[in-house]
Specification:
Order of helices and strands: HHHHHHEE
Structural class: mainly alpha
Oligomer: single chain
Largest sheet: 2 strands, antiparallel
Number of domains: 1
Number of strands: 2
Amino acid sequence: MDATRYLPFIGRLLIGLPFAMSGFGKLAAYGKTTAMIAAVGLPVPPLAYGVAVAVELGGGLLLVAGYQARLVAIALALFSIAAAVSFHSNFADQNQMIHFLKNVMMAGGLLQIAAFGAGQSASTIVFRRAAGLLRAPYRLADPLGFAAIGEQL
């Protein structure tokens, strides 16, 4: 058994869980979160709050599950860059600079997932089997031609 077959899931878990936890935390702190959004000057804080919760909680859980991982990773990468620029651009404050760089690094990891795929995850197998796209033994169909990028699928 190849031990590296579990690495894509572990990587998605380590990137996706902090997003999901952050989104879940925002659910319990509506007032504080919308006040912070308003303080940086973003328009319509309640709408920005809804988008943040949906992207972080929904995107984090979808990434961990491996469902539509390429699309989800791109959305989370864009969100990370937007959050870095909007909330962590005060480089005079070393803490804010560290948060900015953290967001940029997360975006880099997410772009790796977007480029190379989620790997063969249990959710991918289940969804593709249900759609009739799974070839035996557990070789995933590649209708978009991503297998040329690597053998992760």
